[in-house]
């Protein structure tokens, strides 16, 4: 393989980049090419452009050349090793035979250890995977916390699926007897299912790749864990609208479902793949159920590559959710003291967890606008959620505004707006007013409320107004922050929180 048409000196550098850069060879090659072209900037444009075209053609050819299998001996060796790992088990082939259809479920015959198929679809499935631990077992406490922290109305909308994923069937049978005794009424009501995926469906867990220099037993543990979760996700595909991943050693906040529904409602109209309600591990990760087949396939494809929480991050990125969307306060807390891996100590705690999270705002679906000069990507929407982000604008002037325009008129009971942060305490709104409006009309600049009334003035950068629905006679269509005096400091709006009231007469 040759870089024909490329100067000899550059050709040697390109080969070196190809050999040493590994998977990033294309990036390294492009850097060399641009560096070379930079040295040639004294040439006339008509000389550089044909050369650039020739170089790009060479790169495209080289890329196709490698993808077709003509690779260096080192790459061939790595591919042979990878192929050996992938083909070392007939069970592996059996599991992966339907990967061409990523939207379809994986063909696994599950054992129902407790409960039976659901007669109707629920709002939320909560999935837990559990194996035998050397020290401690927290599964019963976790299930109890889920049910105890939910109201009767919330219980109607959830189903908890426990995957007992240990290959020790005697342990599974013993534990399911305990579960059946303690939670019999939830099983009868269709709120709790216990399942098991037979060992015969698992890919090989021997001779796995030793990525990250992990010891062999740890690689086996985390690889099996990926498959455990994949089979759990696969089972839960059609049970509900949303799916939440938990671990088997978790405590829940009170009325967590109501808090989550508020967040989901506030995200209507915006794209998301994974919402996070805890910053730890696999705890409190929420998905659309329609994405579960793809996620299950994804975990199976890369089961031996890396831990599950890392794979979840890659999956989110592949589906074009670039940023983490994590809400505060956290709704779930890790309570286990010993890890399921060899019983080692695991004292991780989520310091954002709150036992009583019922005060989470409703923040109805809305569009946000401002004429304040926005700094970088600190856009207005970042102030209107429980995500740990904020709006940041350059020095506002008198008359500047920040508007929340509801998608439909809303009865609001309470509004709280906080500006500035702990490390930027001067970037507050020094002089401003809070207004609410009605009567949306179309203008040359789009829809705007034609009538506003003032609810109050900002004090020390903050404002909170209670019983809004008793102070005004109309359902609100717009909430507006108005700057009443120019300031040289920039403006951070850290959070905009709105609570709705029931319609009049309820």
From TrEMBL:
Domain MGAT4 A/B/C C-terminal: 366-494
Pfam families per record: MGAT4_cons (PF04666), MGAT4A_C (PF23524)
Biochemical pathway: Protein modification; protein glycosylation
Superkingdom: Eukaryota
Record-annotated membrane-spanning stretches: 15-34, 46-66
Keywords from the UniProt entry: Glycosyltransferase, Membrane, Transferase, Transmembrane, Transmembrane helix
UniProt xrefs under InterPro entries: Glyco_transf_54, MGAT4, MGAT4_A/B/C_C
MGAT4 conserved region domain boundaries: 89-353
Electron transport found in the keyword field: no
Protein name: MGAT4 family member C
Molecular function (Gene Ontology), one example: acetylglucosaminyltransferase activity
Keyword Transferase assigned: yes
Organism: Paramormyrops kingsleyae
One GO term (biological process): protein N-linked glycosylation
């Amino acid at each position: 393989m040759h870089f024909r048409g490329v100067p000899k000196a550059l050709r040697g550098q390109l080969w070196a980049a190809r050999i040493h850069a590994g998977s990033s060879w294309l990036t390294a090659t492009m850097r060399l090419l641009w560096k070379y072209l930079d040295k040639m900037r004294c040439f006339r444009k008509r000389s550089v452009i044909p050369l650039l075209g020739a170089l790009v053609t060479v790169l495209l050819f080289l890329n196709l050349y490698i993808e077709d299998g003509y690779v260096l001996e080192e790459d061939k060796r790595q591919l042979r090793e990878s192929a050996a790992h992938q083909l070392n088990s007939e069970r592996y082939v059996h599991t992966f035979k339907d990967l061409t259809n990523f939207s379809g479920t994986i063909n696994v015959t599950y054992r129902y250890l407790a409960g039976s198929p659901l007669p109707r679809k629920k709002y939320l499935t909560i999935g837990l995977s559990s194996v035998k631990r050397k020290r401690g077992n927290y599964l019963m406490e976790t299930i109890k916390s889920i049910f105890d922290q939910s109201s009767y109305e919330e219980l109607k909308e959830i189903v908890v699926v426990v995957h007992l994923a240990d290959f020790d069937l005697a342990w599974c049978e013993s534990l399911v007897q305990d579960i059946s005794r303690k939670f019999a009424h939830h099983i009868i009501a269709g709120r709790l299912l216990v399942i098991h995926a037979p060992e015969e469906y698992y890919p090989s867990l021997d001779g796995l790749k030793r990525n990250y220099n992990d010891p062999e037993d740890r690689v086996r543990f985390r690889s099996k864990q990926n498959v455990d979760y994949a089979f759990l996700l696969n089972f839960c595909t059609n049970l509900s609208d949303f799916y939440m991943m938990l671990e088997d050693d978790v405590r829940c906040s009170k009325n967590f479902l109501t808090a989550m529904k508020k967040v989901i409602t506030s995200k209507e109209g915006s794209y998301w793949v994974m919402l996070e309600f805890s910053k730890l591990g696999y705890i409190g990760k929420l998905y659309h159920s329609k994405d579960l087949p793809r996620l299950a396939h994804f975990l199976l494809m890369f089961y031996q590559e890396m831990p599950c929480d890392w794979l979840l991050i890659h999956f989110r990125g592949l589906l074009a959710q670039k940023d983490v969307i994590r809400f505060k306060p956290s709704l779930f807390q890790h309570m286990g003291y010993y890890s399921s891996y060899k019983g080692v100590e695991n004292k991780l705690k989520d310091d954002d967890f709150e036992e009583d999270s019922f005060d989470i705002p409703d923040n109805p679906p809305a569009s946000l606008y401002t004429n304040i000069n926005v700094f970088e990507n600190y856009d207005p929407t970042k102030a209107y959620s429980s995500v740990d982000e904020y709006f940041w604008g350059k020095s506002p002037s008198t008359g500047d505004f920040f508007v929340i325009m509801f998608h439909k008129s809303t009865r609001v009971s309470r509004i709280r707006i906080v500006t500035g942060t702990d490390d930027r305490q001067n970037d507050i709104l020094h002089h401003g007013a809070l207004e609410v409006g009605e009567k949306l009309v179309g203008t040359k600049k789009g829809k705007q409320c034609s009538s506003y009334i003032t609810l109050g003035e900002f004090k020390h950068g903050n404002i909170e107004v209670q019983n809004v629905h008793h102070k005004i006679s109309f359902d609100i269509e717009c909430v507006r922050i108005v700057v009443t005096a120019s300031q040289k400091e920039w403006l951070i709006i850290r959070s905009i929180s709105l609570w709705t009231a029931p319609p009049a007469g309820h």
